[in-house]
Specification:
By secondary structure, this protein is of the alpha/beta class. It has two domains: 75 residues, no CATH class; 202 residues, 3-Layer(aba) Sandwich (Rossmann fold). It has a five-stranded parallel β-sheet with strand order 2-1-3-4-5, with helices on both faces. Strand 1, helix 4 and strand 2 form a beta-alpha-beta unit. The longest helix is centred in the last third of the chain and has 32 residues.
Length: 312
Amino acid sequence: MPEFCQRWASKSVAFVVQVVTKLADSGEDLTLQFTWAEINIKPWESILKEIREGNKRIRWMEREPYAYWKGNPFVAETRKNLLTCNVSEKQDWNARLFVQDWILESQQGYQQSGLASQCTYRYKIYIEGWAWSVSEKYILACDSETLIVKPKFYDFFIRSLQPVHHYWPIRDDDKCRSLKFAVHWGNNHKQKAQAIGRAASDFIQEDLKMDYVYDYMFHLLNEYANLLNFKPEIPEGAVEFCSETMVCNAKGLEKKFMMESLAKGPSITNPCTLPPPYEPHVLGVFLRRKTNSIKQVEEWERRYWESLDKKQ
């Protein structure tokens, strides 16, 4: 059974409502985007295979020993702030940050934005934009250690991941110093850093297969339907919208990716079975472990900077 399927069962039915309705104050968000034709991101199964092959091109130890990020910084202040951590003549925060111009990239045939060719650094940064970013699962799929800037939104599988096992937590209020320490720690604990990257990549490659994503969608919609206190009815004058209708109006990459990701038929197996919700104390142990891991990283980071200050 996929791990996120087990973790999902630990949440109450109320959590499902929060996810579906995207309650901003709780930070919950349902995100199920697995292709993006506008910027040449292929369907999930295809890009997963490409990233898996891309991981093999450069051994982890031979990759650039810095934190890498490439994206559009102009969609959110937090990303603009991240750019202040870029290397300069005066300071090196162990980060190598690049601005992605999608208009120029589309004109040049997406030669510099291939996701499978970006696993060339030991560390990759994930940071949200104006909301959740579709880049998260692609970054985690690469077996470089993922440095996740403290998020406000959560993809449906992210709550299964543990800090210092699947990723390294980065402070949102002190990004540069936090990134510098993360890279310093990783370069001084190479085997552990490599193991963190591999654990996340294995999770994405094995537990986030498209069949399991469909399982999640099935259970989510069924649980949500169980909460309805009315019987849905098709409105008068409604027009049926099917896969053929969607494809007919699509062109170019959009149509190509739709056809490539089209389910050829029903599954030959039943969806994964959700176990009963966790007992409160079991869920509490899981959440405390996550909280304690983040606090441990923050303590290591504090000691690191204190030791540097004493040397000056």
